[in-house]
Amino acid sequence: MIDPWNFRFYFDRLVLQRIAADVASSLVPGGEVLLVHWTPLVDGHATTAETVHDTFIANEALLPRRSERAATYRADVLVRA
Fold this sequence. Notes:
The chain contains 2 helices and 3 strands; from the N terminus they run αβαββ. By secondary structure, the protein is α+β, with helices and mostly antiparallel strands. The chain has a single domain (9-60, 67-80), classed as Rossmann fold. Helix 1 crosses helix 2 (49-58). The chain is flat and about 35 Å long. The model has no long low-confidence stretch (mean pLDDT 88).
């Protein structure tokens, strides 16, 4: 299992898909995960906040519950189906 506390922006989409699947499978139905990321682009990062959040939301086992966006961050709460 990939350590979900250590992924930040360092993984590509394929690895993020595996992380999202691992997170989803570790939650009981109704369990929640909170994603919060800085949104300005950062040189040297493999991906963006948008890609991280969109990859998790694309996982069918994780349903969006709440989303908030501001000029410099994005936050999403996802719930295990």
